[in-house]
Amino acid sequence: YQVKEVATKPYDGQKPGTSGLRKRVKVFQQEHYTENFIQAIFDSIKADGATLVIGGDGRYFSPETVQTILRIGSANGVKEFIIGKDAILSTPAASNVIRKYKADGGILLTASHNPGGPNNDFGIKYNVSNGGPAPENVTNRIYEATKTIQKYKVIEADPVDLSKIGKTTYGPSQVQIIDSVKDYVELLEEIFDFPLIKDFLNNNAQSFRVLFDGLHGVTGPYARAILIGKLGLPEAAVQNCVPLPDFGGGHPDPNLTYAHSLVEVVEKNNIQFGAASDGDGDRNMIYGKNAFVTPSDSVAIIADSANVIPYFKKGGVKGLARSMPTSKAIDLVAKKKGLECFEVPTGWKFFGNLMDAGRLSICGEESFGTGSDHIREKDGLWAIVAWLNILAAANKESPNKLIGIKELLQKHYSIYGRSFFSRYDYEEVSSEGANKLVALLNDAIKTSSLANTTHHSKSTGQDYKISSVTSFSYKDPIDGSVSTNQGQIVLFDDGSRVVFRLSGTGSAGATVRMYVERYVGPEAGPEELGRDTAEGLKGLIEVALEITKLKEFLERDEPTVIT
Ligand code: VG1
Ligand code: CO
């Protein structure tokens, strides 16, 4: 073999966002574009002698990119590549493999929930040795390297057959193709009480039916192995579980808008427990007939019931955390249990240091991300099986009345109260409009012009008084690093919040997210606590839209997605 140097020129905009570099496939297909970014990764880490994991959600342009990584990585001195069969490893599975095989890092080929196929998105993300997304100092280094790159290194070698499990040599490097599913299934088996769940599902085969929708993302084979293979559910318990490079033309995002294939069947067939995951398998939605679990509640309920999960029974719960826009439901659980609770910026990378330091066990984001310190990524199937474990345990305590999703939610609200929560996404709006909105809020922060002002909602007849508008900054308690401008928070005097953020995962234009939260205490009673979310938040949303002139700036009457 021979190392060859190829001359190249920098491309603009190769800055990793909330979770890696995500662009249209056509952008990645430009001459040297993908090669530049991969070389920039190797320029930013210690590549010489490294062991690297490679996987992804199997989306279009993945197999050829694996070969590109092999050519460049090998030329940069990588000693061993551990690759998921057919270039497939869900994001949580990859995080597990990095940890289990003690690799130095991993490259994940995914744009998560963004649509795939030749006209849609591709993505490349670097994870570090703890199995988590690279922290900002690493992604900044990669970005800096893309700005000055003049050449990349390759070796000439035959492509590796990604479909054959086993070891081969590749130029000066070793390649190991592994079963994509096996290690992950073993991991979940160690965490949860599979016999308890299996018994429960078996004894309630009619009254508690399960449906998992893979949305043609990467989780299909994992869900099959666990739900059917280990927990004994019938074939009918899974759908859309064959991963496709374009996700069957769909938008593999588990929410009420994009996971309509699940929602329809749950409603039509009265399914008690429905669940879905996103393209790369790190998100989850829990949704049963007449019972939608908002992700902020989901993580709070898992934290509250952690003692029935063997992993936490054994290791204890060290601390809890959420991303800033996520509702404060989990804070109330932490308070009651006397646990530390952290509020970090959006993006899973901010949880890693806390976990590594032994201060965080369970955490979540409002964006359908839930997880724990068993790995360093959020984990869709982990959350789904956690719910099954918790429901199985609750039903063991209640042999005469079936406890479903709804009963569990009601019980939680009756103890802790309820944080009504909703997110409005305005996708692919003009950057100019988005910047005007941000400027208005920043001005209100600087001049305190909105503090102590009262706003009337016509639809509810109520008044809403703003106490402050602030910009969220975070200082990592472990390494002291500071992240500023992580979203603007409009705080009301009753504790309600409206948060505004610009998305960091989009691939075109700007996406504005508005997060709305209003807390109602347990004393309000079941009727008030059981209200429809949209109804519970109506007045607050009306006021938030008005004071920010959002519709005018973004030229949109309605959001693209409401979750
Ligand atoms: C979004 C979510 C964020 C999540 C990120 C990656 O980011 O809001 O909570 O961590 O996606 O999730 P943003 O910057 O677009 O708001 V995934 O499943 O796309 O890796
Ligand atoms: Co994802």
UniProtKB/TrEMBL annotation:
Pfam families per the UniProt record, alphabetical: PGM1_C_vert_fung, PGM_PMM_I, PGM_PMM_II, PGM_PMM_III
Ranges for region Disordered: 1-18
Gene3D superfamilies: Alpha-D-Glucose-1,6-Bisphosphate, subunit A, domain 3, Alpha-D-phosphohexomutase, C-terminal domain
Catalyzed reactions per annotation: O-phospho-L-seryl-[protein] + alpha-D-glucose 1-phosphate = alpha-D-glucose 1,6-bisphosphate + L-seryl-[protein]; alpha-D-glucose 1,6-bisphosphate + L-seryl-[protein] = O-phospho-L-seryl-[protein] + alpha-D-glucose 6-phosphate; alpha-D-glucose 1-phosphate = alpha-D-glucose 6-phosphate
Names of the cofactor(s): Mg(2+)
Signal peptide: none
Cellular component, GO annotation: cytosol
Enzyme Commission number: 5.4.2.2
Similarity comment: family membership: Belongs to the phosphohexose mutase family.
Listed name of the protein: phosphoglucomutase (alpha-D-glucose-1,6-bisphosphate-dependent)
Organism the protein comes from: Pisolithus tinctorius Marx 270
